[in-house]
Amino acid sequence: MGVVGLSVRRTLYARRGADGGWTLVELLVVLSIILILASLAMLQHRNSITLAKEAALRSNLFIMREAIDQYYADKGKYPESLGTLVTERYLRSIPKDPITDSPDTWQTTQADTEPGMLSTQAGIYNVKSGSPDTALDGSRYADW
Questions:
Q1: What span, in angstroms and rounded, lies between the C-alpha atoms of 61 and 82?
Q2: Which of 1, 9, 53, 132 could form a disulfide with 98 if both were Cys (CB 3.0 to 4.6 A apart)?
Q3: DSSP H helical segments within the chain, as ranges?
Q4: Distance in angstroms (rounded) separating the CA atoms of residues 11 and 8
Q5: Contact, 68 vs 108, CB < 8 A?
Q6: How many angstroms separate the Cα of 17 from the Cα of each of 6, 8, 28?
Q7: Which tens digit of pLDDT belongs to each residue from 60-114?
Q8: Which residues make beta-bridge pairs with 107?
């Protein structure tokens, strides 16, 4: 080892002191970097949970709308409620709205009564989420 290398090592040891510990500034810098990285990770984790709930909502809406369409194709009329789709075995059960975490918050849209129909109730032709919240893309869940 050369003379220059030895003098650099001695200078580092002299600066750090005999115990070779960390200075307060170095600890604060390291802790602040760790806190910034942890906050970024928490934000990403929260967004991934919301994205998963939104994907489940889209899937549940697609499945229920397909069941309503299939019911209409088979029976020639719309179902009176979502419960009708379950009793007629078009759905195994009414799925939970992943945003509200309840199967009872779905909002249904009534179909217009067709002229010449004997039934006074036309049934439901669409279903939407009952959540008043806003999605990550800025749209309302109730508008999906």
A1: 12
A2: 53
A3: 3-16, 24-75, 82-87
A4: 5
A5: no
A6: 16, 14, 19
A7: 999 999 999 999 999 999 999 999 999 999 999 999 999 999 999 999 999 887 6
A8: 128
